[in-house]
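Tokens for AsnC family transcriptional regulator. Go.
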Amino acid sequence: MSSNYRIPDLAIDEIDKQILSLLHENSRTSYTDIGKQVELSRVAVQTRINNLMEQGVIEKFTTVINPAKVGIHVSAFFNVEVEPQYLEEVALHLENEPAVTSLYHMTGPSKLHMHGIFTNNQEMERFLTEKLYPLKGVASVDCQMLIKRYKSRMGMKL
């Protein structure tokens, strides 16, 4: 049985994909250097990047910080089960917590999947006991601590 569902085509061409790939490797690469690699002028590259930003293809440029180099030694993933009527309220509260680096609504009975970073175990414990457990609607929390990172996706490669 075939499906009528079709993923819309991206509004980008092969040159845009090359530019995105170069920016993904190093977002500080100059328009001139990108232009040399894709055989376009600096102005043409700048125009394309601006268009990709306006279309929402590029959401933002950011810096990736090594947590261990700034005193962050605990990385943990949490599955937070929330009573359905409190899901949005809990999510809105957690998205404003500095320790929370990502937060997703997952399939299952009102599950939030969250990643958090902490300087040490005591800071994580304070977060749990003072900020997460007291939230109205939180039914259960499952925590898994990261042992070793093999790969971390920072954006999407094309």
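The CA atoms of residues 90 and 135 lie 7 Å apart.
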